[in-house]
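Bumping with the actual sequence this time:
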Amino acid sequence: MSKGNKTRWGKTIQSKDVQHELKRTAILKTAARLFNQNGFRETSLNDLAQELQVTKPTLYYYIENKEDILFQCLLTAITQMLEQTATIQNTELSGLKKLGRFIYLFTSIFDDEFGRCLSRPGPDPLSDKYLQQIDPLYQQLDAAMRDIINSGIDDKSIRACNPKITAFTIFGAINWMTKWYQVDGEMTTREVADEMAEMFTRGLAG
């Protein structure tokens, strides 16, 4: 990302009356970008403060520590993902079409800095304090995909298969995308999402 597109505290948030939440969001978005670019462990609060052009003590007014930042990024992304997944589950579509929409949703979320954090760095760097809060949400996401697959098997739009192995395979393929996908590459995230949704649903069609 060019310097002109970087989030600068002094340039984007100048008013002393700007709400606390806007400043916290600026911290999270910038941190998520740095985590995605450089890695969670390789990014320090000093790096984040320098990027935002604020002092390190200023950051502590809005966040507890670096681990708390990652937790908030993950919580934001997975909460949105679960809400949109529930909408898909509540449609009258066949299980196969629901699965296609879910795959598209999960793949296209990597368009967003918070969304990319779901896979890389993911929750692994978090301590038990945060894992106990975030792990159940990942489990809900896994359960939602299996529920969609089961609904497709029931309505025969999806061929007989092992929902657990199928879900693991799909999640694995999508998560691996963060290893090879280039934001400035020849395909957009949503184009990749279309391809993945088509590939898996065609292979699983009943």
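The tokens above came from a reply further down the thread. The chain has two domains: 3-59, 66-204.
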